[in-house]
Amino acid sequence: MSQISIKSPKHCAKHGLNVDKLYKKLFFAFSAFFTTLLSLILIVWLILRPAKPEFTLKEADIFQLSLSGPNLLNSSIQLTLLSKNPNQKVGIYYDDLQVYAAYKSQQITVDTTLPPFYQGHQDSNLLTASLVGTGLPVASSFNYEVGRDQTAGKLVLNLKVNGRIRWKVGTWVSGRYRINVNCLAVMALGPTLPTGPLSSREGAICSTTHFKQVKCGTSITASALNGVDKDLSSKNAIVFANRIEEETELHDGA
């Protein structure tokens, strides 16, 4: 004989009450989780202060800067840069660095690739590059602009570095960030060109910006990192990465 069970309205009401209690428990559990996560992000942010890499122009020498034909430039420049990682406990991987020289917003050498390297905590590296250009097209006003600089007694070049960097926090390594460095080289220039190279040894501080690469192809400003313990756990490293993205949004809003 089969047994038929019929639930009373009172039983159904009790079941619905239990479901409501379950939803409330889940809501409070998720609220507590996100509150804890936000608190952890805030604590990590207070510990980690963003600091971008620093570059200084140590020396720049122009060995050749002359027109070989109508609006065609030959150039030869040697430069030395000092790269410094100011972070106490964050390393930096430098990838795909391209160096070139510009004059009056015109590129006057081809891109020169620097070998990739890793920079430890508060380490410094000397970077040297030979920049050349053969038959590079320039504006028709190039010769006129150089003449004006001779009259003013100085020649100003922009020495630029573009590339990608990655941050290393403990065992965690970030995604790639675009980095842009601009150094001003100011060289004394008389009414006649000297037989030797034009040199700049002022130790000029370079401006440095870096941008997080986004899949959609846009660039958003991102802060760098600063100080974190070597034994930072993977979880904290992920939180730290999230903080970088939040810094990005803050900079964009500014």
TrEMBL record:
The keyword Transcription does not apply. Keywords: Membrane, Transmembrane, Transmembrane helix. InterPro entries: LEA_2, NDR1-like. This is Late embryogenesis abundant protein LEA-2 subgroup domain-containing protein. PANTHER family: NDR1_HIN1-LIKE PROTEIN 26 (PTHR31415:SF20), OS05G0367900 PROTEIN (PTHR31415). One of its GO terms (cellular component) is plasma membrane. The keyword ATP-binding does not apply. It is a single-pass membrane protein. It comes from Dovyalis caffra.
